[in-house]
Amino acid sequence: MDALFHNTFNTSFFRAYPFFDSDALVPSPVQHPFYHISSVSVVPGINDKALSLISPLVSYWALSFFFHLLDLDIFQWSAKYRIHESEEIKSKNLVSRKDVIIAVILQQVVQTVLGILWLDDSESDAFRNHTAEMRQLSKWVVRLTVTVLGEVKGKEFLAANGQQVLSWSYWWGVPIAQFLLAIFIIDTWQYFLHRAFHMNKTLYKRIHAVHHRLYVPYAYGALYNHPLEGFLFDTLGAAVAQQLTFMTIRQATVLFAISTLKTVDDHCGYALPWDPLQALFGNNADYHDIHHQAVGIKSNFSQPYFIHWDVLLGTRMTRKQLDVRRRKGKDKDTKVQ
Known about the structure:
Shape: elongated
Order of helices and strands: HHHHHHHHHHHHH
Radius of gyration: 24 Å
Largest sheet: none
Number of helices: 13
Distance between the termini: 66 Å
C-alpha cells in the first residue's frame, strides 16, 4: 500500500494548502482498528506470502466439502434448494468426478507457482510506516474537503473532524475502495475473456468446451477448466487485479480467499436464501447455472461478482426468460411431430 500512497497522493494536486497543516490530521499515536495485526505474520509459523497462497486452496476445498455433504443428502432440508436433481449430475455431465479433481489440482498447482513468482513479500505489512502513509493521505483529505466545502468551512471542518476522517479513510475507506476496484477488474477481465471464448468457435471447441462438460455444475468443479483457460481466467486475472490496486500481501490474501469462495459458491448447484455470497450478489449459483444450460450458453458471461456487463451489453438471461425459451422449443418440437 506504500506504493499506492506514494504514486497517487504525492503529486502537486494533493499538496497541502498553505493555510492548513495537513500533518496535524495525523493522530499521535496512531490508533489501529480491530482487524490490525502488528505481528510479523497473521498465523504463527506461516509467513504472509505463504498464507496468501494457502488461503484460496483451503477456501476452495472447505466450501466444496460442505456442498458435497449436501449432495450426499445427509441433510434432508437441503434438497428443496437444489437447482438440479442429483440424477442429472450423473446423466448429463460428460466428465467423471475423478477427472474433475485431477484438473482442479493441476490448476491450483499452476496458481500457486505463479503466486510464488508474482507476489512481493519484501515489505511486510507488520513493518509498514503508517504515520508516513497517513501523512501522504492527509494531503488528499485536505484537498478534497476544501474542494467540497470551500476554504473557510473546510478549515473549520478539518479542525473539528480531520483526525477522525483521516483515520477512517486510511483504515477503511482506501482498503474498501481497493477491494471494490479489484473485484471490478476481475469481473471485467473475466467477462470479456469468457465472452470471447464463447464467440470464437476455435477457442470454444478447443479450450472452453472443457468447462462445459459440466452441464450441471457442482462445487468442486468450479475450477474444472482447460489448463490455459484456468491460467488466463482465474489465476492471471486475480494477479492483475492485485497489482493494479497496489494491494498488500494481506489484502491480497482476503481478495484471493473471497474470490475463490465466490467461484465455488457460483457452481454449487444450490439456491440458498441464507447464503451471504448469493444474497449480496445478483451473480450467484442460479444465475451462473443458466449459462451452463444449452439455451443460455451464450448468455450470463459475467463472473464471479456482479452482472453489470451482461446488463449493459445485452447478454443477461433471467430464469424466467430461460423457461420461456424452453417452452417455445418444446412447442416447436410438438408441431414438427
